[in-house]
Design a protein that fits this description.
The complex is a heterodimer of chains A (about 190) and B (about 200). Chain A has about 190 residues and is mainly α. Chain A is about 70% helix and about 0% strand. The longest helix of chain B has 27 residues. Classes of the chains: A mainly alpha (about 190), B mainly alpha (about 200).
């Protein structure tokens, strides 16, 4: 059987009081308490502490607490019924609730789409390496408008803000027109 | 402490949306929940609001309760979680407001005790040790001592000593072993014993 001294008992007394000790320690403390006045008094003080806490009177909740809770409950019930009826569709509720994340997501997607659009070089459009007739003489009265247009359009092609789709289409159209004119001239 | 047959029927009626059944449950448990919240949070106005929110939570999610017999434990768990969240939010708000508030927020029990010991009537343990005459000043001191405990210790002391909930049920509510609850009770009592020594040792 374990024999305990006062300082050991003192250490375990709160656990003894809360019945949190194993049986061997409990018996040892019980035996010690029978012959030790100081430790018995310490135990008594611990028990008084619990009694003091238990003696604290309960507080009364506010009288209107049920009324407030009932009101909140009824509001919630009404909202629920409204949703079931279709007054406020649930998707609208979620849309309102998640509007900030939705706005951020839409902005990010739009930004990515714009960046992608600027970086795309469609194959069907004329390449930037296309030869441009730079030796064209503008002083000549016989200005070939098709070539003139193509030259400026291809220069504008390198501008990052250029509408490449429209430019490409216009250059192609002009090129075809040019070929058509040349073919007509040849026939003549 | 577990709900009786009437409670089980009331919970069943609550699940089908009967507000009158919810009112009966509310009136049965409101005082206990309010007192637990009040002892943990320490502010009566906040406690009233929190109690209302706790019962609203109960109303909202009572349909998800599988075992009606476990209603009380479920209710206490909701209450404790609400209190914990509230205290966490409050602490965070205080931290962001100003750093200098930190010192003031930690309650200096010993300092306040020294100031006002003279006005407190010390209970006479020799006359009737089982029954303590609780004056309002002494009540304030005990409540302050409770507030100065760490949150985990405060929860078990409040539930066990103030509300008389058994250790077994507290263990179920907090989802820890009974040994842990007993150990927390022991540490909390030890701490309270030191803080309230002047009113006990006579």
């Amino acid at each position: 059987m374990i024999s305990m001294r006062c300082h050991q008992v003192e250490k375990y007394l709160p656990d003894y009081c809360a019945d949190a000790l194993d049986i061997f320690r409990r018996i040892a403390i019980k035996r010690h308490l029978k012959r030790c006045f100081l430790c018995s008094r310490e135990l008594e003080i611990l028990k008084r502490t619990a009694l003091l806490v238990e003696a604290v009177p309960p507080k009364m909740p506010p009288e209107d607490l049920w009324l407030k809770t009932k009101l909140a409950t009824l509001n919630e019930q009404e909202a629920q019924i409204e949703v079931e009826r279709g007054g406020h569709p649930s998707w609208l509720y979620w849309l309102q609730k998640l509007r900030a994340p939705i706005a951020i997501s839409v902005s990010v997607v739009a930004l990515v789409a714009l960046l992608t659009l600027f970086s795309i070089k469609p194959n069907f459009l004329p390449q930037q390496k296309m030869q441009v007739p730079y030796n064209y003489n503008t002083d000549n009265d016989n200005i070939d408008l098709g070539i003139y247009f193509q030259r400026h359009a291809l220069k504008a092609w390198n501008d990052p803000f250029a509408d490449r789709a429209s430019l490409g289409w216009a250059i192609l159209a002009s090129d075809q027109n040019q070929k058509k004119i040349e073919a007509e001239k040849g026939e003549k | 402490m577990e709900p009786d047959a009437i409670d089980v029927k009331l919970i069943e009626r609550c699940k089908s949306g009967e507000l009158s059944a919810f009112e009966l449950l509310f009136k049965k448990y409101q005082s206990r929940i309010y007192n637990i919240v009040c002892s943990i949070v320490g502010d009566e106005t906040e406690s009233a609001d929190l109690t209302q929110e706790i019962f609203l939570d109960v109303w909202r999610s009572v349909k998800t309760l599988r075992r009606n017999e476990a209603f009380a434990s479920w209710l206490y768990r909701i209450a404790l979680n609400r209190c914990r969240n509230h205290l966490k939010t409050k602490e965070r708000r205080l931290e962001t407001q100003t750093q200098s508030l930190d010192e003031a927020y930690e309650f200096d029990f010993d300092a306040s005790e020294e100031k006002s010991t003279a006005t407190i009537q010390i209970p006479d343990w020799t006359q009737n040790p089982e029954r303590v005459i609780m004056t309002s000043e002494l009540e304030t001191k005990v409540r302050e001592a409770l507030q100065s405990l760490p949150q985990l210790h405060r929860e078990v002391i409040v539930m066990h000593h103030l509300e008389g909930i058994e250790v077994e049920q507290i263990a179920k509510v907090l989802e820890v072993s009974q040994g842990t609850i007993k150990s927390r009770l022991a540490r909390a009592r030890e701490s309270l014993r030191r803080k309230l020594a002047k009113y006990i040792e006579r």
